[in-house]
Design the sequence.
């Protein structure tokens, strides 16, 4: 009897897991790490939008070199450590409001990858740039 109950519980857990995956949450997380869709031009400035909450979305952005660029961090009820961002190679440390939009100017991107992290260096984001 006990093992029958345990088997039943396992079936329920598996079914719930499949349901969560099929709803598309899993697919969304997989699709977003690399995408140029968050990069736009605004009056000659390249804007890279990054959502900030429990991590950075997308984790990797693709942008162009040689254009004045801002990283636009969007917080929304963000109270975790991602609300402080660091870009060591540019000497930037910036705290973000818990909700709002903060533009951080990073100048003209050089070919390569600009790396950033949360205040503690745990969560990462990066901007890959090519001409
Ligand atoms: Cu952190």
Sequence:
């Amino acid at each position: 009897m006990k093992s029958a109950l345990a088997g039943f519980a396992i079936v329920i857990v598996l079914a719930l897991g499949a349901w969560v995956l099929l709803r598309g949450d899993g697919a969304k997380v997989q699709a977003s790490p690399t995408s140029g869709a968050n990069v736009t031009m605004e009056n000659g400035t390249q804007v890279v939008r990054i959502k900030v909450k429990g991590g950075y979305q997308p984790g990797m952005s693709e942008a162009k070199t040689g254009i004045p660029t801002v990283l636009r961090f969007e917080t929304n009820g963000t109270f975790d450590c991602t609300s402080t961002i660091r870009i060591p190679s540019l000497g930037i440390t910036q705290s973000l409001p818990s909700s709002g939009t903060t533009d951080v100017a990073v100048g003209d991107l050089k070919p390569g990858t600009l790396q950033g992290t949360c205040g503690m260096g745990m969560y990462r984001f990066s901007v890959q740039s090519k001409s």
Summary: Residues 34-130 form a domain with the Immunoglobulin-like fold (CATH 2.60.40.420).
